[in-house]
């Protein structure tokens, strides 16, 4: 079972017709349009087909596609983070690693339990697991796509060389599996960063705008994190309840087929009803996942990226202040003054450049966030209503029929 | 048969069991109102302990089960009930447990009085009318585990017997198989419904947690319209928490309890089949005994022992009478079992339909509430700018 499943699962995402950039409201620009037109799930890796349409002169053709894997997205993201030139921008958060472990485990369990259930039950559960796998797959495609779209929409990042290489170079980028030393370095970098983060957060900012943003982001990030995990838990329970209704429907069906008495016909009708309502319940859970849970997860990552920006600005401020102190000392001793002056100039420029772009980035972030929440909350409410009305109609017509029969 | 149906249509007998009050043990108050002439007055109220209900069952079962009647069983003493699955925090004093027991006792009593034969039983009348009941002792056997043990023992001996019995009427064999298959499915279904109740309770709790979290998020959001929308969302989720809680209660009281009742009742049905087997066995044993007595007589005639011969002849007469009697008993019990099963099936069909429709209507109302909440929220979400 595992073999037949872990093999090729192809999804042509465009055919769905669903708006893909669900979490970010982005204007599409004719000069550069990026999307993921196809995706392939193969054993333990996913291959994304990145499709580009561009009128920019930098590219050899107007329309082209390459195949990329998750690690190559991470490489691109990290190259932005490490680039000093981009210190003043919110770096679009990296897409999370495609994770099919849970799904694969369930499939394994199903295969093991095949003997203990009826053929109908087995087929049903297999279909459900396949649907779940597909949903996870679609999500990971959407998240990788959103990352690319954000980069393409950013006035500065879209011009990045690495980005163009990522889009165009149709050979392997050979960035998979960073070597061990690099991994260790990364680890230490993060440790230092968090320690620094604490330090910098403690320094009160002269600029009211940034001081407010810092306080706001720290609190907001924590609360989004909490909301995200609570929404996951809620949706998990919802899925479990829908699964129970599914099993109840099956057992009612078995009861209904034991005879052809009135009561058995009754059971069959109720079983049919529950089959339909639980499909709707499962859809409700899935939509809540997409519109609510994913939204919160995305803004968890974005707010972290915004925090990182503030951190970088904070670091630049600290460097600037240190350079000032060094300059004062140099002037006092009248030693290496020119050197100190140059150093101070550089720090000042860096700090001012970051501050300027950071301000705009944070304002844009707010606009994007409000728009995304609006879109998703409206869609969530509309979907909840649609499903509730669907359920209501099913229940009303069934109760009507059952009452009429007695 | 005709007459009984007429009587059923004509009389009125309304029983309900209201809130228990804790006086040492729980006492249940059962207000009745009736048009039946056999009762002293038209409306009356009595108080009973839980053990009184068990005592009533014991008396009725002792008298009527051997005759093939399906005597409705009372609810279990233990909290665990049928599925041995503890659904959330429950103890003897929890409001949910108290209500569950009250409703189960009410249904039990209603089933007893709506059984045309049991209603005539003086013990039932005494139970309904008498002001003070003497404490029923030795209801230990009827605690949940005890009752189930009794049923299991009955079915064990039953399965041993079915191999031997020459079933002249295939109806009984088929019926028993149906009952056993149904029992299996109902038990399965009950476990699943219990699981649903558990998950809905979880959903309720998690929705509440989420609601609080969204409220917090809303209060730290610095865009005014979005902040308000988020706090509205928190309110919707709060209401959903309540809705899920109510739905879980409905799952439990309407659906799970119905299944539990019928699992117990099927146990009583199997007990009546078992009784029929016992009467058959007794008849067979008497026939064997008669045969032995005849052989004894023959031997005595052959051995020419005239003094013992009279005894042998008396024995034969005695056992001939017994054989006739036991055969009649077997026929009578078979007829009763058959009639009881048909009545039971009719009642079951009616019960299931009524209860499940009630359950579906509660689901319906939930959806209507849901729609109201989200409809109120939608303009708030659209107002975000």
Proportion of β residues of chain B? 5-15%
Shape of chain A: elongated
Q: Return the average pLDDT of chain B rounded to an integer.
A: 82
Low-confidence stretches of chain A: 1-22
- How far is the N terminus from the C terminus of chain B? 75 Å
Please compute the radius of gyration of chain A using only Cα atoms: 27 Å
Main sheet of chain A?
Answer: 4 strands, antiparallel
GO cellular component, one term (chain B): early endosome membrane
InterPro entries (chain B): AH/BAR_dom_sf, PX_dom, PX_dom_sf, Vps5_C
Family (chain B): Belongs to the sorting nexin family.
GO biological process, one term (chain B): protein transport
Q: Which helices and strands occur, and which strands form pairs?
A:
The complex is a heterodimer of chains A (406) and B (385).
Chain A: H1 2-6, E1 9-11, E2 32-42, E3 45-54, E4 63-69, H2 70-82, H3 101-112, H4 119-153, H5 161-168, H6 180-202, H7 208-256, H8 262-333, H9 337-405
Antiparallel strand pairs in A: 1-2, 2-3, 3-4
Helix pairs in contact in A: 3-4, 6-8, 7-8, 8-9
Chain B: H1 2-10, E1 13-15, E2 18-23, E3 25-34, E4 43-49, H2 50-64, H3 95-113, H4 116-119, H5 122-129, H6 144-162, H7 170-220, H8 224-303, H9 306-382
Family (chain B): Belongs to the sorting nexin family.
GO biological process, one term (chain B): early endosome to Golgi transport
Subcellular location (chain B): Cell projection, Lamellipodium; Early endosome membrane
What's the short story on this structure?
The complex is a heterodimer of chains A (406) and B (385). Chain A has helices at residues 2-6, 70-82, 101-112, 119-153, 161-168, 180-202, 208-256, 262-333, 337-405; strands spanning 9-11, 32-42, 45-54, 63-69.
Write up this protein.
The complex is a heterodimer of chains A (406) and B (385). Chain A is built from nine helices and four strands; from the N terminus they run H-E-E-E-E-H-H-H-H-H-H-H-H. Chain A has 406 residues and is of the alpha+beta class. In chain A, strands 1-2-3-4 form a four-stranded antiparallel sheet. In chain A, helix 7 (208-256) runs antiparallel to helix 8. Chain A is elongated and about 105 Å long. Mean pLDDT of chain A is 84; it is low at 1-22. Chain B contains nine helices and four strands. Chain B starts with a helix and ends with a helix. Helix content of chain B is 73%, strand content 7%. Chain B is of the alpha+beta class and 385 residues long. Chains A and B meet through helix 7, helix 8 and helix 9 of A and helix 7, helix 8 and helix 9 of B.
């Amino acid at each position: 079972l595992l073999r037949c499943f872990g093999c090729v699962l192809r999804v042509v995402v465009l055919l769905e017709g669903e708006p893909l950039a669900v979490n970010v409201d982005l204007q599409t620009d004719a000069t550069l349009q990026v999307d993921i037109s196809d995706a392939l799930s193969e054993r333990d890796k996913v291959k994304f087909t990145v499709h580009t349409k561009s009128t920019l002169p930098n590219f050899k053709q107007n329309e082209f596609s390459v195949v990329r894997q998750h690690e190559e997205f991470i490489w691109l993201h990290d190259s932005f983070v490490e680039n000093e030139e981009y210190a003043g921008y919110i770096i679009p958060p990296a897409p999370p690693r495609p994770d099919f472990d849970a799904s694969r485990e369930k499939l394994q369990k199903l295969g093991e339990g095949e003997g203990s259930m009826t053929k109908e039950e087995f087929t049903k559960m297999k279909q459900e697991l396949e649907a779940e796998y597909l949903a996870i797959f679609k999500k990971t495609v959407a998240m990788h796509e959103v990352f690319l779209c954000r980069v393409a929409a950013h006035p500065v990042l879209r011009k990045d060389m690495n980005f163009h290489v990522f889009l165009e170079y149709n050979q392997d980028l050979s960035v998979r599996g960073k070597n061990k030393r690099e991994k260790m370095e990364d680890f230490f970098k993060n440790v230092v960063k968090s320690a620094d983060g604490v330090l910098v957060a403690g320094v009160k900012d002269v600029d009211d705008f940034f001081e407010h943003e810092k306080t706001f982001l720290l609190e907001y990030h924590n609360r989004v994190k909490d909301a995200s995990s609570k929404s996951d838990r809620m949706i998990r329970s919802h899925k479990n309840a829908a699964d129970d209704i599914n099993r109840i429907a099956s057992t009612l069906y078995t009861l209904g087929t034991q005879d052809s008495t009135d009561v058995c016909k009754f059971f069959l009708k109720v079983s049919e009803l529950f089959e339909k309502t639980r499909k709707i319940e499962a859809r409700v859970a899935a939509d809540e996942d997409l519109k609510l849970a994913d939204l919160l997860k995305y803004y968890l990552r974005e707010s972290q990226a915004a925090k990182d920006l503030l951190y970088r600005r904070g670091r630049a401020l600290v460097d600037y202040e240190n350079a000032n102190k060094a300059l004062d000392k140099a002037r006092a001793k009248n030693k290496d003054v020119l050197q100190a002056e140059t150093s101070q100039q550089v720090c000042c420029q860096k700090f001012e450049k970051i501050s300027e772009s950071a301000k705009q980035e944070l304002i844009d972030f707010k606009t994007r966030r409000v728009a995304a929440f609006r879109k998703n909350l409206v869609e969530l409410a509309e979907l909840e209503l649609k499903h509730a009305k669907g359920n209501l109609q099913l229940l009303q017509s069934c109760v009507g029929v059952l009452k009429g029969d007695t | 048969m005709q007459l009984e149906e007429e009587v059923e249509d004509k009389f009125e007998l309304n029983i309900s069991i209201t809130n228990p009050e804790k006086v040492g043990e729980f006492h249940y108050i059962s207000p009745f109102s009736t048009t039946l002439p056999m009762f002293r007055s038209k409306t009356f109220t009595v108080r009973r302990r839980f053990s009184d209900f068990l005592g009533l069952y014991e008396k009725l079962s002792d008298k009527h089960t051997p005759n093939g009647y399906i005597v409705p069983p009372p609810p279990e003493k233990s909290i665990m009930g049928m599925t041995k699955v503890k659904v959330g925090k429950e103890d003897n004093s929890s409001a949910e447990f108290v209500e569950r027991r009250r409703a189960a006792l009410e249904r039990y009593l209603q089933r007893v009085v709506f059984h045309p034969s049991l209603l005539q039983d003086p013990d039932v009348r005494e139970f309904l009318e008498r002001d003070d009941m003497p404490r029923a002792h030795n209801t230990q056997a009827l605690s949940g585990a005890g009752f189930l043990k009794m049923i299991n023992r009955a079915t064990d001996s039953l399965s041993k017997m079915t191999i031997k019995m020459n079933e002249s009427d295939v109806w009984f064999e088929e019926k028993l198989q149906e009952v056993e298959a149904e029992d299996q499915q109902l038990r399965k279904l009950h476990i699943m419904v219990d699981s649903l109740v558990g998950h809905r309770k979880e959903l309720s709790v998690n929705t509440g947690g989420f609601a609080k979290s969204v409220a917090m998020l809303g209060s730290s959001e610095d865009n005014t319209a979005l902040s308000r929308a988020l706090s509205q969302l928190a309110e919707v989720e709060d209401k959903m928490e309540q809705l899920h809680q109510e739905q879980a209660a409905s799952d439990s009281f309407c659906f799970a309890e119905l299944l539990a009742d019928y699992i117990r009742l099927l146990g009583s049905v199997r007990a009546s089949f078992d009784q029929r087997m016992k009467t058959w066995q007794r008849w067979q044993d008497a026939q064997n005994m008669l045969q032995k007595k005849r052989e004894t007589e023959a031997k005595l005639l052959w051995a020419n022992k005239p003094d013992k011969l009279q005894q042998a002849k008396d024995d034969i007469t005695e056992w001939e009478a017994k054989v006739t009697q036991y055969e009649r008993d077997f026929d009578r019990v078979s007829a009763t079992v058959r009639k009881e099963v048909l009545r039971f099936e009719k009642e079951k069909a009616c019960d299931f339909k009524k209860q499940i429709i009630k359950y579906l209507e509660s689901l319906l109302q939930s959806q209507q509430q849901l729609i109201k909440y989200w409809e109120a929220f939608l303009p708030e979400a659209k107002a975000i700018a």
